[in-house]
Amino acid sequence: MATTDRQRATRNIIIFTALMSGLAWGGAQLGGTPKEPGLGLLVWGAAPIGAALIMKLVLRDKVDMGWRPRLRGNGRWYLLSLLFFPAVMGSALAAGLLLGAATLHPMDLATLASVVAPAAVIYTIFAFFEEVGWRGYLAPKMATVDARLSGHLWVGLIWASWHFPFLTQIVPGTTENLVTLAPRFVVGTVALAVVYGEIRLRTNSLWPAVLMHAVGNTIGNSVLASLGATPLITLAPGLEWLASPGIEGVLVIALCVAVGGTLYVRRQRQSQAGTRTNAGRYGEHPSGRRAPAADPSVK
Fold this sequence. Notes:
This protein is an all-alpha fold. The chain contains eleven helices and two strands.
């Protein structure tokens, strides 16, 4: 990318971040919380999609938002998006139960369904609002500036910052102080951004991220918050950091780092292998030196 194009992309990322932050923090002043929804909560929740659409439609920023599902050839990535959070959150909760850091409260199937069904609808809508901003606009735009691991990290930091106006209220099942909660939440969000970002790069579609985000929020909030009903799982005070199935839980963070790191390293190796192959085709030695020309006298 030319220097001027890179500077323009960097400028637009800054504008997007400013717009998103202004909407998020401004919304928080208008009234409403995750527990008592109001106009402010809706403005906050719509901040990522609002900022993205302003960049795309008003400022005419050229970016592929990934609207096409691109199902063909991407089945395994959609499957990973569907199963990632059930596996990661389930592992964290299982460890918490075994270590005595979490308590299971049995719930009949009808009650559980009455909790999960409305939660799935609500969190799918909010997942769409978020992911149009994060993986629809920000991640592909960031990749044009920084396609390295650090690009994912910047996306994660911006994504984490959006949560700050309501951070203590959107992390269910904990009474932990922000001093210890916020740093882990940021680290977890950054680690998770690598997983989301790698899937986005492979599929070139927004929808796996929407699917994964909706599943994760539905499970996490249904299990711990239950939308006002008795939680299915309660966490032992002081041990929330260990057993939480949320992104602030250390076990969840560790699994996100493992999965995201694996996906990133594999893509880098595949990219390097492709570079060596193409170099050989066009007369270059894989080391970067020009391959010796063939002797025309040899038949």
